[in-house]
Amino acid sequence: MQRRYADGERSIGIKLGFTSRAKMQQMGVDSLIWGWLTDAMLEEDGGEVALSRYIHPRAEPEVCFLVGRAIDRPLTLLEAAEHIEAVAPAIEIIDSRYEAFKFSLEDVVADNCSSSGLVVGPWSRNLSGLDNAGVLMRLDGQLAQVGSTAAILGNPLRSVAEASKLVSEAGLSLPAGSLIMAGAATAAEALRPGVHVSVEIAGFGESAFTCR
């Protein structure tokens, strides 16, 4: 991350990892982790993503939160909701320096928790129903993953509460305007050139991109 910052990138928030049982099983770990998001990782919703930037990228459906009030202390679940301005369907592009995504917990933390890219869809200020909304991920229009936001710690807002604890433990804070990627709702799918990826969260819209 220091190299990224030295190159002029700026932090725009954090991502949480291993917040769903499916993801823990897929990666073979059992602990919650977090990494940084930078402006250079942000890809255009509905645009093209150059896979040449990555090693062996995968996409996973996520919920993205926009922080409305600075998070500078551990929050309860109710307080977490009060600190969020909006929510959006999102796709995280994960990548890894480790072959076949096989790594130890220490390895993945050192690799910024595989965080490499993100696509954020339309924002909604209504959080009602977010605790158990249907999630569909399609590749070229074909259904690839089906899940629920409930897979994210039982309620994606719990990721905000957990994020508040993690950053506080590190002596840090998240200013208003920060993004929080709550974690994957399903297992990840490998990307290949030409494929169109879309994620729909029932009641909250869709995010998408095309690989090139």
UniProtKB/TrEMBL annotation:
Presence of keyword Lyase: yes
Tagged with keyword Lyase: yes
One GO CC annotation: cytoplasm
Stored Pfam families: FAA_hydrolase (PF01557)
Keywords: Hydrolase, Lyase
Fumarylacetoacetase-like C-terminal domain mapped to chain residues: 49-208
Signal peptide range in chain numbering: none
MF term (GO), any: 2-oxopent-4-enoate hydratase activity
Descriptive protein name: Fumarylacetoacetate hydrolase family protein
